[in-house]
Amino acid sequence: MGFNTTRFGEVEVDERDVISFPEGIPGFSHEKRFLLLSHPGGGPFMWLQSADSPGLAFAVMEPTAFKPGYTLAIGKDETAAIELDDEADALVLVITGFRKGESGVSANLAAPLVINRARRLGKQFVLDSEDCGLCHDVLSEMTSVAREAVARVKGR
After folding, report:
1. Distance (Å, rounded) from C-alpha 57 to C-alpha 74?
2. How confident is the model over 53-103, as pLDDT tens digits?
């Protein structure tokens, strides 16, 4: 099946690859169907593309790509909406943004997207945690993680 997108042109996907967000995404509650597309240039970024609005796509990435210890404290009652019974089926993504006038990339750790890969159901959770910021600096975090890894290797 083909989907028309503003950024990627016509995209052919299997209907089974569509991810349903029954509650939509806050601010986009009418958007219920999305596709997860790889970034054409590779790397850690992906696109959560609306299957119904060609111009709506969110740049997303797995938070563990820049924050290795990132975990979510979400209970089974909260994940019931996406029928998530097994943590292994969970794909956690954060929406990223590119700051104008800077070379920085920020990530919204306070509102992660959780997708049940097996059921193709997703939900955005809004967390109440001081550890999770709305504009977490991805590049400085990645640089810090890389420096720590190099220091560990040199220390051996």
Report:
1. 25
2. 999 999 999 998 888 888 887 888 888 889 998 888 999 999 988 766 555
Q: Which residues contact 134 (CB under 8 A, 6 or more apart)?
A: 106, 108, 109, 110, 111
**Which helix H or strand E contains 35, and what residues bound it?**
strand 33-38
- Which residues are within 8 A (CB) of 44 and not within 5 positions of it... i.e. 6 or more apart? 61, 62, 65, 66
CA quadruple 106, 56, 9, 119: dihedral positive or negative? Answer: positive
Q: What is the residue type of 40?
A: P
Distance of alpha carbon 83 from alpha carbon 128, whole angstroms? 22
Reported as a single tens digit per residue, the pLDDT across 3-27 is 889 988 898 888 899 999 999 999 9
Taken in order of first residue, the domains within the chain and their CATH numbers are 2-155 (2.30.290.10)
pTM here is 0.81
